[in-house]
Every structure is written in structure tokens, then in C-alpha cells.
Amino acid sequence: MHFITLTTTLLFAATGLAAPSAPQVQGRTYDTVHIEFQGAADAKFDLDIATDGNRVSIGNQLSISHIVSYAPEGVECHFLGVEGSQTYTSGYQTVDVGPPQPQLYASCS
């Protein structure tokens, strides 16, 4: 039984069918992306979000006006606000959130 599990694991790893890997840019792998959430009057907070595509709960009630992604090219992130706003970033980018609102979830890949 252990032989079958080991053989299957090696087969998946060798064929690339294992879990998806983190995004790569110029040979470098990025497991997380640094995101800055900006509100009014210089209020802000930061999060590092995994690049595995899973949705992460943000858990901060600050009303957000801008999102800054410090991601390399090729890494995209999606944010969902409490009033239904959907904000997207691609690579290093600052985007407006309209209308400003607390953010519920984020995902990056």
C-alpha cells in the first residue's frame, strides 16, 4: 500500500499534476503578494496574501479608497468590498475602490 502511495506521489510530481505552484517571474517564485489598503486621512493597513488563488478574509473595517499591489508582473489579485465592489490589480499597481468601502475578501494568483 505504501508503495502505491509513494509511486502515485512521484508520478504526480514528475508530470506536473501536483498542486499548482506559485507564480514565477524571471525565474523567481512568489508565494505571497504585499498589499496596502489605503483609507482617508492617511489611514492604512497591509496584508501579505498567498498567491495560491484561495480567498482570504481581510477582517478590517477601515473604508478603503485605494489598493496598492506590490506584486510582480503576471500576478493578479481580486478584492470584494462589503457593498459589492470588485477591484482587480495586475502586477505593481495602485487602483481606486469605488465607492470607498471596507473590503471583505482578497485572492491572488
Automatic annotation (TrEMBL):
The keyword Signal applies. Keywords: Signal. Residues 1-18 form the signal peptide. This is AA1-like domain-containing protein. It comes from Pseudomassariella vexata.
